[in-house]
Design brief:
Blueprint: H1 2-24, H2 28-41, H3 46-58, H4 62-75, H5 82-91, H6 93-114, H7 118-131, H8 136-148, H9 152-165, H10 170-183, H11 185-196, H12 218-316, H13 320-328, H14 341-368, H15 372-385, H16 390-402, H17 406-419, H18 424-433
Helix pairs in contact: 1-2, 1-3, 2-3, 3-4, 4-5, 4-12, 6-7, 6-12, 7-8, 8-9, 8-10, 9-10, 12-13, 13-14, 14-15, 15-16, 16-17, 17-18
Length: 435
């Protein structure tokens, strides 16, 4: 059994080394594939997982990078480089906000593209790549939209940026081959390659013939020059000039006709674009609600991963109170990655056994200090973790009573009386209600 374990570790280390070499030469796609194979043979290879997270971060996939680093930190809590990466993201929340906004805009552009509003999608993607120049998916989608409208020059520029980030990206290489074919670049490169290897070498029997030399006198040379000038002027006057004049007239008439046709075409195009803009504006207004919901969902998922990382950091600092308060604001149902589920389950167990009481105590402290709104917030979070807690419900009712919200207070007192009739709190609730 030990032999197979050692063999798996050797294979995992080999794939990690290959992935590291590929990453150093910016073959990020190839490096990611090798690192995934390394983790397949040894999921505890934290160096491979950290490097995979860096690659995801480099191509603009911030949420995938955070997932890898959180898993790595849980597998190796001490002396782990990913701790530095997560701290950097937490110390500079602007990075996370930019990444979140980029994901929202990319999703919006993708929705526009699927709906046939390519112009709006291009505008949205242009804003995305300006804010986050290394977002590979946005560059690729922008190139596809340019290619669909046969603007191969702009598509080539977007693909060139992708290949600068990830030089062996298969989609970018495929799209670039299409762009080169349609711009004639592929034929030029092929011809250059052919010429570079097709120079004819001189044979042994090849002879270079020198030009014939004839000695002329000065008088003969002057006569030849005069005859040449006369013949040149005559040829230009009777042959070249009439043909040139006729050609210029034809070209001028043709140019005027082309400009007229172009002007008519542009007028029709302006009318068409005006109608399309009106339709696009109406479509945008009608889809605003659903689009905002979709964008908020994407950003919310990213925030959940960030809060999970903060909870784990609080655990490592033995700061359970902070961990409880952060967890109370989390929605762990949005974190669906399978490797993180055991971690979340363990945290949920701690919160169910001890965390709810920490929140209840914080609520009591806030109520004693006269901060009624904060007390209600802490009580609500405590009940969200453990709803079956008559003491917290009773304390909630007392806070509402102090705030002169008698209706809400009596409703909560009634819950205690009805659901916990055998407890001492039921008798106190009756007294508070005036029974």
């Amino acid at each position: 059994m030990d032999y197979y374990v050692r063999r798996n570790h050797q294979i995992a280390n080999s794939f990690y080394n290959i992935g590291l070499e590929k990453a150093q030469i910016r073959d990020l796609t190839g490096a990611a594939e090798c690192l995934k194979k390394s983790l397949h043979f040894n999921k505890y290879q934290t160096d491979a997982r950290n490097l995979l997270g860096l690659i995801y971060y480099e191509v603009g996939e911030v949420s995938d990078a955070i997932v890898q680093w959180v898993i790595s930190l849980n597998l190796q809590p001490e002396n782990n480089r990913c701790d530095y990466y997560l701290d950097e993201i937490q110390r500079k929340p602007g990075r996370l906000e930019v990444a979140s906004q980029s994901v929202k805009k990319y999703n919006q552009a993708l929705w526009y593209a699927k709906g046939g509003s390519d112009d709006l999608a291009v505008l949205q993607l242009a804003a995305v790549v300006e804010d986050k120049p290394n977002f590979v998916k946005a560059h690729l989608l922008l190139a596809v939209l340019y290619m669909a409208h046969e603007d191969y020059t702009k598509a080539g520029k977007s693909l060139y940026k992708v290949l600068q980030i990830d030089k062996n990206n298969p989609k970018a290489q495929w799209y670039m081959s299409i762009v080169k074919t349609n711009t004639g670049r592929a034929e030029i490169e092929k011809r250059k390659l052919h010429n570079a290897f097709s120079h004819k070498q001189m044979q042994d029997d090849d002879v270079i013939l020198p030009p014939t030399y004839k000695e002329n006198t000065g008088t003969q040379m002057v006569i030849n020059i005069v005859i040449g000038l006369v013949l040149g002027v005559a040829a230009f006057t009777f042959l070249v000039l009439p043909a040139r004049t006729k050609a210029l007239n034809v070209a001028h008439n043709k140019e005027i006709q082309e400009y007229s046709e172009m002007l008519n075409s542009k007028n029709l195009e302006v009318d068409k674009l005006t109608r399309e803009l009106s339709d696009a504006t109406e479509a945008k207004q009608s889809a605003e609600t659903s689009l905002e919901a979709m964008a908020d969902e994407s950003g919310g998922v990213l925030n959940q991963y960030s809060m999970l990382a903060q909870v784990l950091q609080a655990y490592r600092n033995d700061d359970f109170n902070t961990a409880v308060q952060i967890y109370a604001n989390m929605d762990s149902s949005q974190i669906t990655d399978e490797p993180l589920q055991p971690i979340i389950a363990e945290i949920q167990g701690d919160m169910a056994s001890e965390g709810y009481q920490v929140l209840a105590d914080l609520g009591d402290q806030a109520a004693a200090a006269g901060n009624n709104q904060a007390a209600l917030d802490f009580y609500a979070k405590s009940l969200r973790i453990k709803g079956d807690n008559p003491e917290v419900i009773f304390n909630q009712a007392m806070v509402y009573k102090n705030m002169n919200d008698t209706d809400t207070a009596n409703q909560l007192f009634g819950e205690v009386i009805m659901n916990y009739s055998d407890s001492d709190l039921a008798e106190r609730a009756k007294t508070e209600r005036g029974y």
